[in-house]
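Quarterly update from the structural biology core.
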Amino acid sequence: MKFNFSLLMFLSLVTSLVSANEPVSTGFFNNTAVTGHDVTAYHKLSLGDKAVKGDKIYSLEWKGAKWYFVSEAEKQKFESDPGKYAPAYNGHCANALSLGEGLIKTSGEHWAVFDDQLYLFYAARGAKRWLTGDYKAYKHVSDKAWKDILQERNQ
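Predicted structure, tokenized:
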């Protein structure tokens, strides 16, 4: 069993490295973005609402990951303008980037929308920090960290 688990982890790592230049926050054992939450739905939710899971029937591949949606209409919305609906930093924790912690995967459960852009967080305290603090300053630091990560990956 130990061998199979190690092989699975290795294959997962190789797949994620090869699949896209921009890393997407996916599950450890699958290639599903934002653990299957519909990223278009966040824009209709009120702060504190629970994120909405998409359905495999309405999925597409973007940036090397599977993205799920609640309906064909939501999937088409994303397809027509992924930049509008995709989470900042491709779903990695915005707070971790702002603290210099690098790429931390998220579950899609902790979120906030600032200036019509979706941001995901590893934990509630990260979202709270951004909601009660100077999110524009945090965003500035996160944007630079994201840019640096992408530059390193593309060398």
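The longest strand covers residues 55-62.
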